[in-house]
Write a structure and sequence with these properties.
By secondary structure, this protein is mostly helical. It has one domain: Fido-like domain (Fic-like fold, Orthogonal Bundle). Helix content is about 60%, strand content about 10%. Strands 1-2 form a two-stranded antiparallel ribbon. Helix 1 packs antiparallel against helix 2 and helix 2 runs antiparallel to helix 3. The model has no long low-confidence stretch (mean pLDDT about 90).
Length: about 100
């Protein structure tokens, strides 16, 4: 997966996800970080944002990364505040 801009033939690649053969180790690192960051990052919204960005940069699936990334971000918020988040990040972003 790449994030690209520019005219055809003069594209600029702004970001390229890790190659598919490294996804398992990238996700293992993400899960380790996610579990350890619960005590290290004290601000819920900061941890949620970093969680989402980290997951999206791995981009482990062909489709659905955004939905799963937002769900993981909501999980991070819920863990930090100690109860389920009673709103949807997707709906908030859409509005």
């Amino acid at each position: 997966m790449q994030i690209v801009s520019g005219a055809i033939g003069r594209e600029t690649v702004h970001f390229e996800a890790p190659p598919s053969n490294t996804i398992a180790s990238e996700m293992s690192g993400f899960i380790t970080w996610f579990n350890e960051s619960q005590n290290a990052i004290k601000k819920p919204i900061v941890r949620s944002a970093i969680t989402h960005l980290y997951f999206e940069t791995i981009h482990p699936f062909e489709d659905g990364n955004g939905r799963i990334g937002r769900a993981i971000a909501e999980k991070a918020l819920s863990q930090c505040i100690g109860r389920p988040v009673l709103f949807s990040l997707s709906k908030s972003i859409e509005q």
